[in-house]
């Protein structure tokens, strides 16, 4: 039980920063929770932080559901469509990679890419439709362990005319529909996840909700690019050592 609580807490913290929560949870679960595919468990734990997003941004969701914010609704609908298509096409491949030593290599490369994207400066602007397609595509790629969902979406959103705080808000909001669909898909294929890993869901929700407010206030003052780069190098070093052994 406490293993799942720990994994949920890790998800609750790393979901909000440009260091892949999926990659880190998958790495830990590979050694601590061997009953499940590491990628499946990592994706499933996003349901806990999804609930944190729904609770924290309840006013935004209310405006979307009551059609008071049609612009954001159309953006989320289009970006989600592209995310699901790309994520589904990649899922089978990364699931098989996660079962072998290639997980460390994939995670390391993904974290290095996250470091680059997190530190990238805005060079041009995109239209509403163009940004939805691009950012939806990038979010779909984040099914690869190590490629931070928040990192790539923050990068994509920074190419639009949104201010920094709105970039973070939309990045977190757009995770909800994708996580909901992927969670339902995983549950339909492996219902044991919900019955055995529920402590992790509870932990990821509680920790995620507690840290979300802090992250929104402090993310502009902390250099997450450096941390992502260091984690990426460590993963690549681990993959090299594993290969040599």
Write the SSE topology:
Layout (H helix, E strand, L loop, with lengths): L1 H13 L6 H12 L5 H7 L1 H11 L1 H8 L4 H29 L3 H17 L9 H14 L7 H9 L6 H10 L1 H15 L2 H5 L1 H21 L5 H21 L1
Helix pairs in contact: 1-2, 1-13, 2-3, 2-7, 4-11, 4-13, 6-8, 6-11, 7-9, 7-14, 8-9, 9-10
Brief description of this entry?
This protein is an all-alpha fold.
Fold and architecture overview:
With 245 residues, the chain is mainly alpha-helical. It has one domain (2-244). The protein is built from 14 helices and no strands. It starts with a helix and ends with a helix.
Number of domains: 1
Q: What is the strand content?
A: under 5%
Radius of gyration: 17 Å
What overall form do the CA principal axes indicate? globular
How far apart are the termini? 32 Å
Q: Give unreliable regions as ranges.
A: none
Number of helices: 14
Average pLDDT taken over every residue: 78
- Multimeric organization: single chain
Query: Which secondary-structure class do the elements indicate?
Result: mainly alpha
Query: How many strands in all?
Result: 0
**Helical percentage:** over 70%
User: How do the SSEs run, as a string of H and E?
Assistant: HHHHHHHHHHHHHH
Defining key terms:
14 helices; single chain; 245 residues; 78% helix; globular; mainly alpha
